[in-house]
Amino acid sequence: MKIYTYDVIVIGSGAAGYNAACRLRQLGKNAAIVTENVNCGTSRNTGSDKQTYYKLGLGGDAPDSVYNMAQNLFDGGSVDGDNALCEAALSARCFMNLVELGVPFPVNRYGEYVGYKTDHDPYARATSTGPLTSKFMTEALQKKANELNIPVFSGFLAIEILKYNDRVCGVLCIEIKSGELCAFRCGDIVLATGGPAGIYADSAYPGCHTGTSSLAIMAGAKMQNLTEWQYGLASQAPRWNVSGTYMQVLPRFVSVDTDGNEHEFLDDFFENKYEALSLVFLKGYQWPFDSKKVLCGSSVIDLLVYRECVMKNRRVYLDFTKNPFGMSEIDYKKLSEEAYTYLFRAGACFGTPIERLLKMNAPAIELYNSKGVDITKEYLEIALCAQHHNGGIAVDMWWQTNIKGLFAVGECSGTHGITRPGGSALNAGQVGSLRAAQYISAQDNKCISDDIFGRVLQTAEEKHKSIADKVCGGDDNVSGAIIKAQRRMSDSAAAIRNKDDMQQTLDITTRELSDILSFTVSDKSELYMFYKLRDILITQTAVITAMIDYAETAADTRGSALYTDNRGELKSGLEENFRFRKENEETRAKVQELWHNGECFETSWRPVRSIPQTDEVFETVWRTYRENGNIY
Asked: What is the pTM of this model?
């Protein structure tokens, strides 16, 4: 077996992973990146109408401070205050690092980074480079990593974190093309594997990104807030958020049944067509599904799409070529004042949706053209999709897990809570990777000896060779199992959650996981797909367990999910199985934790860590910093 030795292994090649590797090298560590494919990942391959980077205010006369930003992050609920304070305190440093690396964030003639308001943002802290902000970030950081000569092992799937005396000592991988095992020996590991995108069928994540959350789970790392996701309307092919102007131009919503019959289903629900159009317009701002906007807000649109797709087994499309409801012309003054004013000022009170889109945001049309879809002529298939995981691996204020030497940065770390400000995830990935690099460089952990590592590796090698012997050489039933597992998850454990349905899905998933060696692939070149299936089933089991625990513990609805309850409230016109109880907010001061005890999953709840009060005298901080005292 090939064995590579480095101080630190970073797993993942997105914006957070590349930043971790660059910072580690700049701080004197010999780090390498291990990735399934250097060109895959969410950071590089996804975006939205105006993909946001959330940072401290750096323009204008609006008052802002590190503590204000930390408080706003903390107020999202189920957020640890020390993580929030770090994300606020280091946001300017991390943002300016990206600017210096060439990410083209807009600036005015005086050097101000003028911002705008995003969701859950009381200040105008948001900025953007357009729909591909995270892609530009990843490319700039990759360029820096190349300049620093950081090794990148592309085409390697990590399958097990190796430990000795409850501390990481390496990672076992398979080379995807050959299915052969190889190992990386190291003193520390930084997980930058993104969210567990592979567990859902209806997904805004790029198809090449699936995540590898089970790595941490099976290593014994605690997970937190696994119930908290962000869901929203997205196109299916290509996978892309239909937020912003895609909604504000008022497209038609059309479903098609199995016989090919079209239904403009919003017309079936709304008595007032202009109320429907006003709510479609609001979907542009209020893009994520929000349970608080069901009874009086735009999120009823999401439920209607879900009802058509999942409950009626129809395919749903946006049509930009014609106005909704057979209108030859829209009387824009009958829209809500907010919608009318916006469209009037944009000079878009005319024509068809595609003509309005051409006027307001022509690059939005070109974006789909570049992906092979001409929305000037074609319907665009959509669904209510998983877009971002706010929960994930539990970390401390240095983004270290409960496993010594194992760090989690970017979306795989669970620092975001329930309702984060839009775009704060990009900032969190940069801050978390910097913090992890700072801590690792200060500790100077050494690799274990060749002899000890050899014994640890031999045990892992024997286990995975036995797996390969059993699953390789049969009929390929793995791919079909993945598709079925993803479909079950989207239907029963996504934005709409019923406890009984989730329990049925958990029972099936647990049964398949216990019988995992019955799934086979044709040869070793497909072995990585078996590990993909295993990762999906393990992660689904963890996530559904957390959701059921929440349903039993809180029994109310919060965030970007609706927990059905026959004792709750119902939006007029919807079926009884959309009845839900409003959030009482008692759990917002708590964090749900989950871990695998070696046999099964356990859950518990703890209070959030409060925001540290840092009213410190400069001279004291300066002395501690000079002496490199107890900072770490």
From this structure: 0.96
Average pLDDT over residues 433-441: 97
Count Cα atoms within 13 angstroms, Cβ side, for 207. Answer: 7
- Burial class of residue 618 (count of CB atoms within 10 Å of its CB; 0-12, 13-18, 19+): exposed
Q: Are 127 and 115 in contact (CB under 8 A)?
A: yes
pLDDT classification of 13: cutoffs 50, 70, 90: very high
Residues 469, 53 contacting (CB under 8 angstroms) = no
Q: Indicate the residue type of 583.
A: E
Contact predicate 400/436, CB 8 Å: yes
d(CA 423, CA 428): 9
Asked if residue 531 lies in contact with residue 477, where contact means CB atoms within 8 angstroms, the answer is no
Residue-level pLDDT at 102: 98
Predicted confidence band at 621 (pLDDT cuts at 50, 70, 90)? confident
Indicate whether 630 pLDDT > 60. no
Give the model's pLDDT for residue 47: 85
Residues with Cβ within 8 Å of residue 610, at least 6 apart in sequence: 81
Average pLDDT over residues 391-402: 98
Phi, psi of 577 (to 5 degrees): -75, 5
Residue 186 · residue 407 · CB < 8 Å: no
Q: Angle at Cα 420 formed by Cα 556 and Cα 425, nearest 5°?
A: 135
Rounded CA gap, 132 and 248, in Å? 20
- Sign, CA torsion 366/423/129/340: positive
The SS3 of residue 3 is strand
What's the full length of the chain, in residues? 632
Tokens of 365: 């049309």
Which among 389, 425, 421 has a CA at the least distance from the CA of 543? 389
Radius of gyration over alpha carbons of the chain, in Å? 24
What residue spans of 34-192 are helical by DSSP H?
Answer: 42-45, 66-74, 81-89, 91-100, 133-147
Tokens of 544: 């559904």
Q: How far is CA 101 from the centre of its chain?
A: 24
Please check the confidence at residue 629 and state whether its pLDDT lies above 70.
no
Cα-to-chain-centroid distance, residue 165: 32
User: What single-letter amino acid sits at 295?
Assistant: L
Q: Are 382 and 420 in contact (CB under 8 A)?
A: no
pLDDT(430) > 60: yes
Q: Which of 60, 56, 139 is nearest to 95 (CA)?
A: 56
